Amino acid sequence: MSHTHEQEEALRRGLGLSRRQVLAATTGVAAAASLPLAQPAAAASRRPLVPPNRRGIILYTVRDAISRDPLSTTLPSGFRRVFEALSGYGYRQVEFAGYRQHANAEGGADLETVEGARLLRRWLDDNGLRAEGNHGFIPSSWPLTTADRDRFIQVLEIANILGLDHVGTGNDPTSSAYKDDWDVAADKWNHLGELARGAGIKLYTHNHDAAYAFLLDRGPLDEQGRPTRSSGIRRLEYFFEISDPRRVHFEMDIFWAYVAQFKHRTYTAYDGSVRTDVFDPLATVRARESRFPLFHAKDGTSNPAAANGYDMVPFGTGDIDYRRFFDKLRDRNFHNPMYEQDNAPGTDPAQSLQYAELSYRNMAALRG
């Protein structure tokens, strides 16, 4: 993207913010527009930890609103109306989790086409929103089949129409515990990353806690000839080293990274001894910050009795120290935090959008 285009994009986003303020005044969501005025004087004098144009949401959080029948409710339904609502709350970025909506929504059910992408792009632009990524198709085959390669090329074409800087997946590169499988995953992701780079897009993978469990790469072999012990390196840390930093990027799901800190604390070393190594999500990012263009800003309340150690809650209402996390990043204008809450949909059909508004306010309130 040229410098001139970046300047034009910044101006467009600025106009989008003004549009939001006008919209807020006429739709009853003025609180979102007036948040900076509501901050205590000391907090208001500090810089926002997440700049306004970097505050985002992955649409999986509001999947119930996108997928519901607009003929059955007055609540926002389908992509266009949900974009309007999210823009009204203040969001400037979205991350897709696929391109399907209810068949009765404007544009029809499946927008994963060239024409569908153009429609989505128009709605994004109309609401001052920028799409930063998508959790979509990553080929399972390796070497690639012709069909998988062609489909991935189509993914990149749609991404360019939408203006995405990134394409990726909601899964880990592999769910395996074994070094050899991560080696194969690196070969595939390096190749896909080169295809994406040729289209001007960054390829990214998203983590769950298992990706920060320890790699099995040492010790006695099992009956299938696989190692049973660990050198102490974590699976994704190994992948960092063997994947090409020019081709493969990452989206840390910060909630799941803290779950990993809770769950994956010990490993059996080559000599059979049990060793402790507590995972540090922030240190992991800071060691290779340019490889993390995206985050999932997902919050949790500490619950040691739960299997994951945390209960998922709206952003800013849990115990994960996001103020410290974002304050310690070297370049807050590089990263794109996307609010996510897997359990935001509930029995109240308005809940996921209410949580989205609350979470935006809490993200906007972070100062450092």
In words, what does this structure look like?
Residues 83-339 form the Xylose isomerase-like TIM barrel domain. It is a single chain. This protein has one domain: TIM Barrel, CATH 3.20.20. It has 14 helices and 14 strands. Helix 7 packs parallel to helix 8 and helix 9 (179-198) crosses helix 10. Strand 12 and strand 13 (310-313) form a beta hairpin. The longest helix has 25 residues, at 3-27. The protein is an alpha/beta fold. The strands form 4 sheets. Strands 3-2-1-14-11-8-5-4 form an 8-stranded parallel beta sheet. The chain has a two-stranded antiparallel ribbon with strand order 6-7. It has helices at residues 3-27, 30-33, 35-38, 41-44, 63-67, 78-89, 114-126, 146-162, 179-198, 235-242, 254-263, 281-286, 322-327, 351-365, and strands at residues 56-58, 93-96, 130-134, 166-169, 202-206, 218-221, 227-229, 248-253, 266-268, 274-276, 294-297, 299-302, 310-313, 336-339.
Spatial extent as radius of gyration: 21 Å
* CATH top-level class: Alpha Beta
Question: What is the approximate shape?
Answer: globular
Q: Which parts are unreliable, with pLDDT below 50 for 5 consecutive residues or more?
A: 1-39
Q: Separation of termini?
A: 30 Å
Q: Largest sheet, if any? A: 8 strands, parallel
User: Count of DSSP E strands?
Assistant: 14
CATH architecture: Alpha-Beta Barrel
**Integer count of domains:** 1
Widest β-sheet, arrangement of strands: 3-2-1-14-11-8-5-4
| The named CATH superfamily | Divalent-metal-dependent TIM barrel enzymes
Q: Indicate the multimeric state.
A: single chain
- Individual helix count: 14
Order of helices and strands: HHHHEHHEHEHEHEEEHEHEEHEEEHEH
Q: Helix content range of the residues, please?
A: 40-55%
Report the β-strand fraction as a percent range: 15-25%
CATH topology annotation: TIM Barrel
Classification by helices and strands:
alpha/beta
Task: Please state the average pLDDT score.
Answer: 91
Domain Xylose isomerase-like TIM barrel: 83-339
Protein name: Sugar phosphate isomerase/epimerase
Keywords: Isomerase
GO molecular function: isomerase activity
